[in-house]
Amino acid sequence: MTEPRFTPLSEASRQALIAVRDSAYAPYSRHPVGALLIAESGRHYLGCNVESANFKGLCAEAGAISAMIGQGEREIVTLYVIGPGQHLCTPCGDCRQRIREFATPETVIVVLDGEGTPLKHYTMEQLLPDSFGPENLPPA
């Protein structure tokens, strides 16, 4: 398997990603997360986590995907995820499945440290091996 390739973030995109992370509403976990999704068109979509008192919040990746879908797009080329520290802040299980819905084998998921430096990158197969997707369902 070849290593996934991705375009490094521009300084403006890195700053936008940090800003959206810093805008997250995370009063319960105190773990703000931001996501920047680059769609097939090249357009960028941002998302941040939004928690609620019942602990059923919205993940940053889900917010970025929702913004992409709302604009009529359906394919993720690259997804950047940033947490607050120097550790890996990989997508949760729910988001891995959400990403899978709109990913291709070439989609790259990049996890950044709190300053926006890439820590690790994944293909969809690496992030969610042997996944279940739309092609596993009978035609409508």
From TrEMBL:
The active site is at residue 61. It comes from the Bacteria. It catalyses: 2'-deoxycytidine + H2O + H(+) = 2'-deoxyuridine + NH4(+); cytidine + H2O + H(+) = uridine + NH4(+). Zn(2+) binds at residues 59, 92, 95. GO terms for cellular component: cytosol. Residues 8-135 form the CMP/dCMP-type deaminase domain. The keyword Cytoplasm does not apply. Keywords: Hydrolase, Metal-binding, Zinc. GO terms for molecular function: cytidine deaminase activity; identical protein binding; zinc ion binding. GO terms for biological process: nucleobase-containing small molecule metabolic process; pyrimidine-containing compound metabolic process. Pfam families: dCMP_cyt_deam_1. Its EC number is 3.5.4.5. InterPro entries: APOBEC/CMP_deaminase_Zn-bd, CMP_dCMP_dom, Cyt/Deoxycyt_deaminase, Cyt_deam_tetra, Cytidine_deaminase-like. The keyword Magnesium does not apply. Its cofactor is Zn(2+). This enzyme scavenges exogenous and endogenous cytidine and 2'-deoxycytidine for UMP synthesis. Belongs to the cytidine and deoxycytidylate deaminase family. NCBIfam families: cyt_deam_tetra, PRK05578.1. This is Cytidine deaminase. It comes from Chromohalobacter japonicus.
